[in-house]
Structure formats: structure tokens, C-alpha cells
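From the shared-data thread, chain only:
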Amino acid sequence: MKTVQSYEPLSLPDRISLPDDRMLEESSTFLEHMAKRHTVRDFSDRPVSRQVIENCIATAGRAPSGANQQPWHFVAVSRPDVKAAFRAAAEAEEKDFYEGGGGDEWISALEPIGTDASKPHLEVAPWLIVVFAQRYGEHEDGSRYKHYYVNESVGIATGFLIAALHHAGLSTLTHTPNPMKFLNELTGRPAREKPVMIIAVGHAAEDATVPAAAKRKKQLDDILTVL
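Structure, as C-alpha cells:
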């Protein structure tokens, strides 16, 4: 049954106000911290507490969303058998991609990153987090209602999640096999949820490397216009 909610203004419950010099300091400190975030493909098998993962996903759940509908769902996987199934299914899709399904231009763009069809991180990383976008919502009686700005909302929540994981001292790798329908089947999520990506999470291996190309970031003048 549909529940009708009315607007009820509340006094701002959590107000953060800093002096100007402290704002500058905090923004600089956060920039410096996030500049140390690197996507890695070489993970250690060192365990990561479930509570850490839950805290980071709870942080993602605090992201803003269209009409506050929070059109996301996260599946955290640590079971070795499920991770192995993920890897087998993903590598089958990736094999088709790298054998020509992705197109020459796309595959060429990936060359400096050094990726291929082999995805051992899907088994080595202690956690895999699958991000799902809910195409629509459902009332208790099974009737549907529209979700607004789904892609934008899920993208913001995913950014929160990656930042939270980095803040907790963890490394991540975003992985988007194409197609991804197998993720619904392996996790038991409904068809109304579209898989967006797998995020491998853990500690970087001692011999982890990053591609030199990944260190080339656009300068501020290239990404900012001030009016």
C-alpha cells in the first residue's frame, strides 16, 4: 500500500561551521589524502573486518539522491565460492571483449592501463562489493513507483563509498564486465536492480604496481571554470 508523506521541515540537526582558515586547512588536507588514492589490481589476501565494510557502505547510504529515494543496493561478498563464480563469469565476458567484442578504439584506449581478460583480483581481494541501481521502487503491495535521477544518485553514492574505503586505509578496483546480468543471478537480486559495477576491496599487495598512465591527472585549469 502506498504511503503518502507530507513535507515536514526540521531544524538543521548537524551544523558544521568552520572559520575560514580552518576551512582552507581541511580542504587542503582532504585533497592531499585523496591524491594518495590509487586503483590497484594486485591485492593481498589479508582479511578485512566485515564491520569496516558495513561502515563504509553505511557512509555510501548517506549520499544525496533524487527525491531522497536512495535507488541503490550493495551486495558485499567474502565467500570464496561466490568470488570464484564471479571471476569465472566475468572472465568469460572479458575474453569476448578483448577478442574483439569491445571494438578496436576501446581496447586501444585500455592499452596504457595494462588490463586483459584475466581477473585474479576477483578471488584474491577479501571483499567484492557489487553496486546495483534500482530502476524503480516497489510499495508493500507490489505496485511500482518511479525513481528519479537513478544514475546520478548511484554515482554519487559510489563516490562516497570509494572515498570511505580509502579513508579506512583500503585499496579498491572498479570493475565493469559487460554484460553484467550474471551478477543478478549470482547474488539473487531482482531484475529491477541493474548491476553497475564490482568494487574489489582490500589491502594492496606488497608488490602492487600502478600503470604510469594512471598518474597523469588533468590539471585544475583543465577541469575548472570559475565565473
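The domain at 39-206 is CATH 3.40.109.10 (NADH Oxidase).
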